[in-house]
Amino acid sequence: MTVPPRPTPPAGPEHTPARHGPSGADDPERVLGAIGSSWHWALATALATLLPGILILVWPDETLHILAVIIGIYLLLAGFFRFIMAFGPESHGERITRLLLAVLFVLAGVLCLRNPLQTIAALSLIVGVTWLVSGMVTVYLAVAAKGLPHRGILFGAGALGVAAGIVVLALPTESAVVLTRLLGLWLVLLGLLEVGVAFTLRAGLSRAAKDRGLTF
């Protein structure tokens, strides 16, 4: 979000108590906007997706009994990072849409952690619906945000999320090991694509900073 400079308050003792720190430091929206515009949050989201996937693929048998915990933590972290990113520049997406998506991830994470011993069928339903809705929203943002550089990468990440959700929802859940490895594989693929999105965002922010004559 491009934040205009904060107007200088009029001089006078009645305005002195309102200044609690540096310009903008007492405005939560300005602070979140400055933080959310950083590409590092997109990279953190990618790592929060990629690392659990690698863990599940490397130790499928060991992680089977704590699969819901791993997936729950992944969803909570992804939801938190997406919440922060929702306060970034609004030119590349709608804030309300991104906030709703962040809430979806957090609620799904809470459902996974609320009952770690739930059945594989219930876990696959939670993850499948989350990926499906998230992928559809990501595809929408990629199509609607005309000024977004390299929209193809974001569109690909959204399409992969849609495919992952459909496959997880349609796959029979009799085999917990098969579903565990499938979830791990999808997490790795989604994480790699999200890494590409993060570095694409970095390049876009760097280009914008150079156009404004700033050092990125």
From TrEMBL:
<keyword id="KW-0472">Membrane</keyword>
<keyword id="KW-0812">Transmembrane</keyword>
<feature type="transmembrane region" description="Helical">
    <location>
        <begin position="65"/>
        <end position="87"/>
    </location>
</feature>
<protein>
    <submittedName>
        <fullName>HdeD family acid-resistance protein</fullName>
    </submittedName>
</protein>
<feature type="compositionally biased region" description="Pro residues">
    <location>
        <begin position="1"/>
        <end position="12"/>
    </location>
</feature>
<feature type="transmembrane region" description="Helical">
    <location>
        <begin position="39"/>
        <end position="59"/>
    </location>
</feature>
<dbReference type="Pfam" id="PF03729">
    <property type="entry name" value="DUF308"/>
</dbReference>
<keyword id="KW-1133">Transmembrane helix</keyword>
<feature type="transmembrane region" description="Helical">
    <location>
        <begin position="152"/>
        <end position="171"/>
    </location>
</feature>
<feature type="transmembrane region" description="Helical">
    <location>
        <begin position="99"/>
        <end position="117"/>
    </location>
</feature>
<feature type="transmembrane region" description="Helical">
    <location>
        <begin position="123"/>
        <end position="145"/>
    </location>
</feature>
<dbReference type="GO" id="GO:0005886">
    <property type="term" value="C:plasma membrane"/>
</dbReference>
<feature type="region of interest" description="Disordered">
    <location>
        <begin position="1"/>
        <end position="25"/>
    </location>
</feature>
<dbReference type="InterPro" id="IPR005325">
    <property type="entry name" value="DUF308_memb"/>
</dbReference>
<dbReference type="InterPro" id="IPR052712">
    <property type="entry name" value="Acid_resist_chaperone_HdeD"/>
</dbReference>
<feature type="transmembrane region" description="Helical">
    <location>
        <begin position="183"/>
        <end position="205"/>
    </location>
</feature>
